């Protein structure tokens, strides 16, 4: 199995974070907040606000770098134990994902809210995705009901 994309990145996490912030602001973000892990100084989530229609919606992108560390271990990446390295790879992966989402938005085929909807905050501590999973909401199979 080939290791994941970005596993060789040398781009510092701070540079990926700055590029994400700049791109989100360029695309209308009106606020940015970093939520830190206790005791590590590392960012646990990037929160940002976007105006959608007549509302301002808050979003939180998780930085689950410890889960990524397990993936790198499973993929037998030699540096999987180096926390700074894993954190850097996590941020570069998030960077690429955000940039791809924004490129899709620029096609005018989707609205900004469609791209980030799972990460929309429904309350202070919970995203829409987390709420759906926790409440075991059932989603339709997409067929029209009669």
Q: How widely separated are the two ends?
A: 46 Å
Number of strands: 3
Query: Which structural class do the helices and strands define?
Result: alpha+beta
H and E string: HEEEHHHH
State the helicity in percent bands: 40-55%
**Could you tell me the mean pLDDT?**
91
Instruction: Indicate how many domains the architecture comprises.
Output: 1
What does this protein look like?
The chain is α+β, with helices and mostly antiparallel strands and 146 residues long. It has one domain. Helices cover 42% and strands 16% of the residues. The protein has a 3-stranded antiparallel sheet with strand order 1-2-3. Helix 1 packs parallel to helix 3 and helix 2 crosses helix 3. The chain is globular and about 50 Å long.
Summarize it:
The chain is an alpha+beta fold and 146 residues long. The protein contains five helices and three strands, in the order αβββαααα.
Q: Could you name the key traits of this structure?
A:
146 residues; alpha+beta; 3-stranded antiparallel sheet; 5 helices; 3 strands
Q: How are the secondary structure elements laid out?
A:
Blueprint: H1 13-26, E1 31-36, E2 43-52, E3 55-62, H2 65-74, H3 83-106, H4 112-116, H5 128-135
Antiparallel strand pairs: 1-2, 2-3
């Amino acid at each position: 199995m080939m290791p994941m994309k970005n596993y060789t990145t040398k781009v510092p996490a701070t540079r990926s974070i700055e590029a994400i912030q700049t791109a989100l602001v360029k695309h209308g973000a009106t606020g940015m907040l970093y939520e830190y892990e206790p005791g590590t100084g590392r960012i646990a989530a990037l929160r940002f606000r976007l105006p959608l229609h007549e509302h301002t919606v808050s979003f939180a992108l998780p930085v689950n770098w410890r889960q990524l560390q397990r993936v790198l271990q499973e993929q037998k990446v030699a540096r999987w134990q180096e926390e700074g390295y894993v954190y850097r790879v996590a941020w570069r992966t998030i960077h690429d994902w955000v940039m791809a989402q924004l490129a899709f938005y620029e096609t005018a085929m989707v609205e900004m809210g469609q791209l980030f909807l799972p990460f929309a905050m429904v309350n202070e501590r919970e995203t829409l995705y987390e709420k759906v999973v926790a409440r075991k909401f059932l989603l339709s199979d997409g067929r029209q009901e009669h």
